[in-house]
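Handout, page 2. Input:
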Amino acid sequence: MPNPNHPKKGSTITVQPIPYDAIPLLKDLLRSSPRDYLLFVLTINNGLRISDVLRLRVRDVVNLLPGQYIIVKEKKTSKKNVLMMNEVTREAVLRFLETMPDDDKFLFSSRKGNSPLTVPYVTSLVKGWCKKVGLVGNFGTHSLRKTFGMVQRTVHGVSYEVISKRYRHSHPGVTMRYLGISDEEVNEMLMNNI
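Output:
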């Protein structure tokens, strides 16, 4: 029997980025769970796909200092990308690794043997986190990736071309959809006096 919640073939499910003002609420919620806090912080600070984050091992990040990075081969595209350590991510790593002595283990290990958490499981986590802080909308693992780009563009003023390069998108239009650049925003720009 087909899943009634699954989109029809050829259609897509679009998730939203997490609103900027909700990020501190989520961090506060997740601080009591070092694993979940690290998962959230690492992903929104790097913009990698969750499938690439879940393949990380403890040894990949244990010695990284702020400003250092590792090369990650993207599962979806086989392209090389980087995972950069910044200060907030390093603090989260150190806090979490107090509970993870095994260097060869997956960073986000499943309780079922030596395998990482699954994408569907993390999707349910993200949905639950968002619900607990009162967010209404469609959120999932890709929301974390979109949040990275949205914050870089709206808070830090990074151009969508630079974000597109970070995402390794083949076309800038893909990045513009990711970042929610709408026709209304373009039309508002036309009201600026020069």
